[in-house]
Amino acid sequence: MVSKIRDKETGAVTVLDTMHTRDEGIRAGTTAEGLANLKPAFMEDGKVTAGNSSQICDGASAALIMSAEKAKELGLTPRAKFRSFALAGVDPVRMLTGPMPATQKALAKAGLSMDQIDHIEINEAFASVVLAWEKELKADMSRVNPNGGAIALGHPLGASGTKLLATMLNELERSGGRIGLQTMCEGGGLANATIIELLG
Fold first, then answer.
1. SS3 sequence, the chain?
2. Among 53, 106, 134, 148, which one has the highest count of C-beta atoms within 10 angstroms of its own C-beta?
3. What are the tens digits of pLDDT across the range 21-74?
4. Which residues contact 69 (CB under 8 A, 6 or more apart)?
5. Would you kindly state where each structural domain of the chain is located, as residue ranges?
């Protein structure tokens, strides 16, 4: 990959010829012992460590979203449709519980139950988010983040939503599933959930 960077003052152009071929967030040498010895991040006797939290990583993503009529007009073939979308807010002090009511609202709007969802992507800024969500929603965890979540793969702030949407869509197509659910915290006690259905 070649990038050209122009100096704003002098106008000189620096050419960079660098290819990133390895995801820097994945640490192949990680062991259970190493994770168990990590110090708590927030409180001296706390449970949250760098090992059960996502790392902030670089990332970019995009999704092309339009009506079925517009897609037909442009000669495009839609891959999926939105079944429902929901927002929820919870006590900001207990902010990491937002995906629970967001998921429940999205399921109700779509007229679906959790056992009808083929694939789930939940952004795991912290492991406790997914564990609390699982306890409340009674989800089949074999359907949740089957290719790894943010703790394993990273959390690109500002790009996580469409990154998870693309991951979910691709995995539904690969696995032969039909309906996918994505949910994530937004910060400050807010969360959202989206349900899509494959077309074709």
1. CEEEEECCCCCCEEEEECCCCCCCCCCCCCCHHHHHCCCCCCCCCCCCCHHHECCECCCCCCCCCCCHHHHHHHCCCCCEEEEEEEEEECCHHHHHHCHHHHHHHHHHHHCCCHHHCCEEEECCCEHHHHHHHHHHHCCCHHHECCCCCHHHHCECCCCHHHHHHHHHHHHHHHHCCCEEEEEEEEECCEEEEEEEEECC
2. 106
3. 777 777 788 899 998 899 998 888 888 888 888 888 888 888 999 999 999 999
4. none
5. 2-52, 68-198
- Reading the block at residue 7, the tokens are 């100096």
Sequence letter at residue 16: L
Q: How far is CA 106 from CA 132, 167, 198, in A?
A: 18, 19, 17
pTM of the model: 0.82
Supply the CATH classification number for the domain 68-198. Answer: 3.40.47.10
